[in-house]
UniProtKB/TrEMBL annotation:
Gene3D superfamilies linked to this entry: Spore Coat Polysaccharide Biosynthesis Protein SpsA, Chain A
Name this protein carries in UniProt: Glycosyltransferase
Transmembrane parts of this sequence: 236-259, 271-292
Organism field: Oleomonas cavernae
CDD domains: DPM_DPG-synthase_like
Single GO term (MF): transferase activity
Length: 334
Protein backbone atom coordinates (compact mmCIF):
# COMPACT_ATOMS: atom_id res chain seq x y z
CA UNK A 1 0.00 0.00 0.00
CA UNK A 2 1.19 3.49 -0.86
CA UNK A 3 1.63 5.33 2.41
CA UNK A 4 3.26 8.40 0.89
CA UNK A 5 0.89 11.34 1.25
CA UNK A 6 3.57 13.98 1.60
CA UNK A 7 2.63 15.60 -1.69
CA UNK A 8 -0.93 16.38 -0.70
CA UNK A 9 -0.20 17.03 2.99
CA UNK A 10 2.70 19.43 2.43
CA UNK A 11 2.34 22.39 4.76
CA UNK A 12 -0.52 20.76 6.71
CA UNK A 13 -0.23 19.67 10.30
CA UNK A 14 -1.78 16.25 10.97
CA UNK A 15 -2.91 15.18 14.43
CA UNK A 16 -3.85 11.60 15.29
CA UNK A 17 -6.12 11.88 18.32
CA UNK A 18 -6.76 8.75 20.38
CA UNK A 19 -9.31 8.71 23.22
CA UNK A 20 -8.75 5.73 25.49
CA UNK A 21 -9.44 4.17 28.86
CA UNK A 22 -7.49 1.20 30.22
CA UNK A 23 -5.96 0.20 26.87
CA UNK A 24 -2.43 -0.69 28.00
CA UNK A 25 -2.60 -3.92 26.00
CA UNK A 26 -3.28 -2.15 22.68
CA UNK A 27 -2.28 1.51 22.85
CA UNK A 28 1.40 0.96 22.05
CA UNK A 29 0.47 -0.93 18.90
CA UNK A 30 -1.94 1.86 17.88
CA UNK A 31 0.63 4.62 18.37
CA UNK A 32 3.39 2.81 16.49
CA UNK A 33 1.02 1.86 13.68
CA UNK A 34 0.09 5.47 12.93
CA UNK A 35 3.66 6.65 13.34
CA UNK A 36 4.67 4.14 10.67
CA UNK A 37 2.07 5.10 8.06
CA UNK A 38 2.04 8.84 8.85
CA UNK A 39 5.50 9.76 10.15
CA UNK A 40 4.74 13.46 9.70
CA UNK A 41 1.76 13.30 12.09
CA UNK A 42 1.74 13.88 15.84
CA UNK A 43 -0.04 11.18 17.83
CA UNK A 44 -1.97 12.44 20.86
CA UNK A 45 -3.32 9.98 23.41
CA UNK A 46 -6.02 11.39 25.68
CA UNK A 47 -6.33 9.13 28.68
CA UNK A 48 -9.63 9.09 30.57
CA UNK A 49 -8.09 8.37 33.99
CA UNK A 50 -6.96 4.80 33.30
CA UNK A 51 -6.10 2.53 36.19
CA UNK A 52 -3.63 0.39 34.22
CA UNK A 53 -0.35 1.27 32.46
CA UNK A 54 -1.95 3.01 29.47
CA UNK A 55 -0.11 6.30 30.06
CA UNK A 56 3.32 4.72 30.48
CA UNK A 57 2.90 2.50 27.42
CA UNK A 58 1.68 5.40 25.26
CA UNK A 59 4.57 7.63 26.31
CA UNK A 60 7.08 4.85 25.68
CA UNK A 61 5.67 4.46 22.16
CA UNK A 62 6.26 8.16 21.47
CA UNK A 63 2.79 9.66 21.87
CA UNK A 64 1.94 13.01 23.43
CA UNK A 65 -0.18 11.99 26.42
CA UNK A 66 -2.78 14.11 28.19
CA UNK A 67 -5.42 13.26 30.77
CA UNK A 68 -9.12 14.07 30.96
CA UNK A 69 -10.70 13.73 34.40
CA UNK A 70 -14.35 13.81 33.32
CA UNK A 71 -15.35 10.26 32.42
CA UNK A 72 -16.95 9.54 29.05
CA UNK A 73 -15.78 9.49 25.44
CA UNK A 74 -17.77 12.61 24.61
CA UNK A 75 -15.92 14.56 27.31
CA UNK A 76 -12.60 13.34 25.90
CA UNK A 77 -13.56 14.32 22.34
CA UNK A 78 -14.58 17.80 23.51
CA UNK A 79 -11.22 18.25 25.21
CA UNK A 80 -9.25 16.95 22.21
CA UNK A 81 -11.07 19.18 19.74
CA UNK A 82 -10.55 22.19 21.98
CA UNK A 83 -6.89 21.58 22.86
CA UNK A 84 -5.28 20.48 19.62
CA UNK A 85 -4.55 22.89 16.80
CA UNK A 86 -4.01 21.12 13.48
CA UNK A 87 -5.15 21.17 9.87
CA UNK A 88 -6.22 17.52 9.68
CA UNK A 89 -7.48 15.38 12.55
CA UNK A 90 -7.55 11.59 12.55
CA UNK A 91 -9.69 10.25 15.40
CA UNK A 92 -9.35 6.57 16.22
CA UNK A 93 -10.10 4.41 19.25
CA UNK A 94 -7.17 3.11 21.25
CA UNK A 95 -8.26 -0.52 21.28
CA UNK A 96 -6.27 -1.63 18.22
CA UNK A 97 -9.33 -2.73 16.23
CA UNK A 98 -8.92 -0.15 13.44
CA UNK A 99 -6.38 -0.41 10.63
CA UNK A 100 -3.77 2.42 10.62
CA UNK A 101 -2.90 1.56 6.99
CA UNK A 102 -6.22 3.08 5.88
CA UNK A 103 -5.33 6.52 7.29
CA UNK A 104 -3.25 7.81 4.33
CA UNK A 105 -6.06 6.95 1.90
CA UNK A 106 -8.61 8.69 4.12
CA UNK A 107 -6.40 11.77 4.48
CA UNK A 108 -5.75 11.93 0.76
CA UNK A 109 -9.48 11.69 0.03
CA UNK A 110 -10.23 14.48 2.52
CA UNK A 111 -7.69 16.82 0.92
CA UNK A 112 -8.18 16.04 -2.76
CA UNK A 113 -11.99 16.25 -2.59
CA UNK A 114 -11.96 19.17 -0.12
CA UNK A 115 -14.14 17.27 2.34
CA UNK A 116 -14.94 17.93 5.98
CA UNK A 117 -15.12 14.33 7.16
CA UNK A 118 -14.11 10.90 5.89
CA UNK A 119 -15.66 7.99 7.73
CA UNK A 120 -13.86 4.67 8.09
CA UNK A 121 -16.65 2.15 7.56
CA UNK A 122 -15.92 -1.07 9.40
CA UNK A 123 -15.46 -4.24 7.37
CA UNK A 124 -14.77 -7.35 9.47
CA UNK A 125 -13.92 -10.90 8.46
CA UNK A 126 -14.14 -12.25 11.99
CA UNK A 127 -17.57 -12.61 13.65
CA UNK A 128 -15.92 -12.05 17.03
CA UNK A 129 -14.73 -8.57 16.02
CA UNK A 130 -18.19 -7.07 15.82
CA UNK A 131 -20.69 -8.54 18.27
CA UNK A 132 -24.21 -9.26 16.98
CA UNK A 133 -25.81 -6.97 19.55
CA UNK A 134 -23.59 -4.06 18.50
CA UNK A 135 -24.14 -4.81 14.82
CA UNK A 136 -27.93 -4.86 15.25
CA UNK A 137 -27.88 -1.70 17.39
CA UNK A 138 -25.77 0.11 14.80
CA UNK A 139 -28.17 -0.92 12.03
CA UNK A 140 -31.23 0.11 14.06
CA UNK A 141 -29.85 3.51 15.03
CA UNK A 142 -28.52 4.16 11.53
CA UNK A 143 -31.93 3.33 10.05
CA UNK A 144 -33.66 5.60 12.58
CA UNK A 145 -31.38 8.52 11.79
CA UNK A 146 -31.98 7.95 8.07
CA UNK A 147 -35.74 8.13 8.61
CA UNK A 148 -35.48 11.23 10.77
CA UNK A 149 -32.86 13.23 8.90
CA UNK A 150 -33.19 11.93 5.35
CA UNK A 151 -29.69 10.48 4.92
CA UNK A 152 -26.85 9.08 6.99
CA UNK A 153 -23.76 6.87 6.79
CA UNK A 154 -23.37 3.14 6.35
CA UNK A 155 -21.58 2.86 9.70
CA UNK A 156 -22.81 5.68 11.90
CA UNK A 157 -21.06 4.56 15.08
CA UNK A 158 -17.55 3.89 13.79
CA UNK A 159 -14.74 5.34 15.88
CA UNK A 160 -12.43 5.91 12.89
CA UNK A 161 -12.82 9.32 11.21
CA UNK A 162 -10.75 12.02 9.56
CA UNK A 163 -11.82 15.64 10.02
CA UNK A 164 -10.96 18.99 8.53
CA UNK A 165 -9.99 21.82 10.83
CA UNK A 166 -13.16 23.75 10.08
CA UNK A 167 -15.27 20.76 11.14
CA UNK A 168 -13.46 20.32 14.44
CA UNK A 169 -13.43 24.00 15.36
CA UNK A 170 -17.12 24.46 14.52
CA UNK A 171 -18.38 21.30 16.26
CA UNK A 172 -20.01 22.05 19.66
CA UNK A 173 -19.34 18.58 21.19
CA UNK A 174 -22.08 18.56 23.82
CA UNK A 175 -22.44 14.83 24.52
CA UNK A 176 -20.51 13.14 27.31
CA UNK A 177 -20.38 9.44 26.42
CA UNK A 178 -20.36 7.01 23.50
CA UNK A 179 -23.21 8.92 21.87
CA UNK A 180 -20.63 11.41 20.59
CA UNK A 181 -20.47 9.58 17.21
CA UNK A 182 -24.22 10.10 16.81
CA UNK A 183 -23.83 13.79 17.61
CA UNK A 184 -21.06 14.09 15.02
CA UNK A 185 -23.27 12.40 12.42
CA UNK A 186 -26.29 14.61 13.06
CA UNK A 187 -24.11 17.74 13.07
CA UNK A 188 -22.80 16.71 9.65
CA UNK A 189 -26.28 16.07 8.27
CA UNK A 190 -27.67 19.29 9.72
CA UNK A 191 -25.04 21.48 8.02
CA UNK A 192 -25.04 19.30 4.87
CA UNK A 193 -21.25 19.02 4.98
CA UNK A 194 -19.14 17.32 2.32
CA UNK A 195 -18.25 13.80 3.46
CA UNK A 196 -17.18 10.39 2.16
CA UNK A 197 -16.96 6.80 3.39
CA UNK A 198 -14.02 4.45 2.90
CA UNK A 199 -14.17 0.76 3.88
CA UNK A 200 -11.57 -0.10 6.54
CA UNK A 201 -10.57 -3.41 8.06
CA UNK A 202 -11.96 -4.01 11.55
CA UNK A 203 -10.22 -6.58 13.75
CA UNK A 204 -10.77 -8.28 17.07
CA UNK A 205 -9.33 -6.70 20.18
CA UNK A 206 -5.87 -7.72 21.25
CA UNK A 207 -5.56 -10.11 24.17
CA UNK A 208 -6.08 -8.35 27.48
CA UNK A 209 -8.19 -5.52 26.03
CA UNK A 210 -11.87 -5.25 26.99
CA UNK A 211 -14.69 -3.23 25.42
CA UNK A 212 -16.08 -0.33 27.45
CA UNK A 213 -19.30 -0.27 25.41
CA UNK A 214 -22.50 -1.57 26.99
CA UNK A 215 -24.96 -2.56 24.26
CA UNK A 216 -28.17 -1.71 26.11
CA UNK A 217 -27.06 1.20 28.29
CA UNK A 218 -25.15 3.04 25.58
CA UNK A 219 -27.78 2.14 22.97
CA UNK A 220 -30.42 3.74 25.18
CA UNK A 221 -28.26 6.86 25.59
CA UNK A 222 -27.79 7.11 21.83
CA UNK A 223 -31.53 6.69 21.24
CA UNK A 224 -32.23 9.40 23.81
CA UNK A 225 -29.77 11.70 22.05
CA UNK A 226 -31.43 11.07 18.68
CA UNK A 227 -34.83 12.01 20.10
CA UNK A 228 -33.39 15.12 21.72
CA UNK A 229 -31.67 16.11 18.49
CA UNK A 230 -34.93 15.51 16.63
CA UNK A 231 -36.64 17.99 18.95
CA UNK A 232 -33.83 20.50 18.41
CA UNK A 233 -33.23 20.01 14.69
CA UNK A 234 -36.67 18.98 13.39
CA UNK A 235 -39.09 20.61 15.83
CA UNK A 236 -41.83 21.34 13.29
CA UNK A 237 -41.94 17.69 12.23
CA UNK A 238 -42.00 16.47 15.84
CA UNK A 239 -44.55 18.90 17.25
CA UNK A 240 -46.51 18.73 14.00
CA UNK A 241 -46.87 14.99 14.56
CA UNK A 242 -48.12 15.66 18.10
CA UNK A 243 -50.56 18.23 16.71
CA UNK A 244 -51.85 15.68 14.20
CA UNK A 245 -52.41 13.04 16.90
CA UNK A 246 -54.28 15.47 19.16
CA UNK A 247 -56.37 16.67 16.20
CA UNK A 248 -57.34 13.11 15.28
CA UNK A 249 -58.31 12.37 18.90
CA UNK A 250 -60.40 15.54 19.00
CA UNK A 251 -62.15 14.76 15.73
CA UNK A 252 -62.76 11.15 16.76
CA UNK A 253 -64.45 12.30 19.96
CA UNK A 254 -66.36 15.19 18.42
CA UNK A 255 -67.95 13.49 15.39
CA UNK A 256 -70.34 11.20 17.38
CA UNK A 257 -71.31 14.15 19.57
CA UNK A 258 -72.01 16.29 16.53
CA UNK A 259 -74.11 13.53 14.92
CA UNK A 260 -76.19 13.20 18.12
CA UNK A 261 -76.61 16.96 18.28
CA UNK A 262 -77.84 17.17 14.68
CA UNK A 263 -80.28 14.31 15.29
CA UNK A 264 -81.66 15.34 18.72
CA UNK A 265 -80.50 18.89 19.35
CA UNK A 266 -78.88 17.70 22.58
CA UNK A 267 -75.34 17.06 23.79
CA UNK A 268 -75.69 13.86 25.85
CA UNK A 269 -71.95 13.40 26.52
CA UNK A 270 -70.78 16.80 27.68
CA UNK A 271 -67.55 15.54 29.39
CA UNK A 272 -66.53 13.96 26.07
CA UNK A 273 -67.09 17.32 24.38
CA UNK A 274 -64.80 18.98 26.93
CA UNK A 275 -62.10 16.40 26.24
CA UNK A 276 -62.51 16.96 22.50
CA UNK A 277 -62.12 20.72 22.88
CA UNK A 278 -59.08 20.20 25.13
CA UNK A 279 -57.49 17.91 22.54
CA UNK A 280 -57.93 20.44 19.72
CA UNK A 281 -56.43 23.14 21.95
CA UNK A 282 -53.43 20.90 22.58
CA UNK A 283 -53.17 20.36 18.83
CA UNK A 284 -53.05 24.10 18.18
CA UNK A 285 -50.54 24.63 20.99
CA UNK A 286 -48.30 21.85 19.65
CA UNK A 287 -48.39 23.30 16.16
CA UNK A 288 -47.56 26.80 17.39
CA UNK A 289 -44.74 25.41 19.55
CA UNK A 290 -43.32 23.63 16.51
CA UNK A 291 -43.47 26.81 14.39
CA UNK A 292 -41.77 28.93 17.08
CA UNK A 293 -39.12 26.30 17.80
CA UNK A 294 -38.49 25.86 14.07
CA UNK A 295 -37.70 29.57 13.75
CA UNK A 296 -35.32 29.32 16.72
CA UNK A 297 -33.66 26.27 15.17
CA UNK A 298 -33.21 28.03 11.85
CA UNK A 299 -31.46 30.92 13.57
CA UNK A 300 -29.18 28.54 15.50
CA UNK A 301 -28.35 26.65 12.30
CA UNK A 302 -27.42 29.91 10.59
CA UNK A 303 -25.06 30.72 13.46
CA UNK A 304 -23.48 27.25 13.30
CA UNK A 305 -22.99 27.69 9.56
CA UNK A 306 -21.31 31.07 10.10
CA UNK A 307 -18.98 29.57 12.73
CA UNK A 308 -18.15 26.78 10.29
CA UNK A 309 -17.32 29.27 7.52
CA UNK A 310 -15.21 31.37 9.90
CA UNK A 311 -13.27 28.28 10.98
CA UNK A 312 -12.68 27.46 7.32
CA UNK A 313 -11.24 30.91 6.65
CA UNK A 314 -8.82 30.56 9.58
CA UNK A 315 -7.79 27.12 8.32
CA UNK A 316 -7.09 28.44 4.81
CA UNK A 317 -5.02 31.30 6.23
CA UNK A 318 -2.97 28.93 8.41
CA UNK A 319 -2.26 26.60 5.50
CA UNK A 320 -1.28 29.40 3.13
CA UNK A 321 1.11 30.86 5.70
CA UNK A 322 2.67 27.47 6.45
CA UNK A 323 3.29 26.83 2.76
CA UNK A 324 4.76 30.25 2.20
CA UNK A 325 1.93 31.69 0.12
CA UNK A 326 0.25 33.71 2.85
CA UNK A 327 0.91 37.37 3.58
CA UNK A 328 3.06 36.66 6.64
CA UNK A 329 5.42 34.32 4.75
CA UNK A 330 5.58 36.59 1.73
CA UNK A 331 6.45 39.53 3.94
CA UNK A 332 9.24 37.59 5.61
CA UNK A 333 10.62 36.44 2.27
CA UNK A 334 10.54 39.95 0.81
Amino acid sequence: MDWNVGGVTAGREIAVIVPCLNEAAAIGQVVRGFQQVLPEATVYVYDNMSTDDTIAVAKAAGAVVRQVSHRGKGNVVRRMFGDIDADIYIMVDGDGTYDPAAAPTMVRRLIEDNLDMVVGTRVDDDPEAYRKGHRFGNWLLTTLVTKLFGRTFTDMLTGYRVFSRRFVKAFPALSSGFETETEITVHTLELRLATAEIPTRYSTRVAGSQSKLNTYRDGARILKLILRLLMLEKPLALFGAFAGVFALVSIGLFVPIFIDYVATGLVPRFPTLIVSVGAIMLSVLSLMTGIIQDNVTRGRQELKRLFYLAAGERAATAISQSTGTGPARIARRG
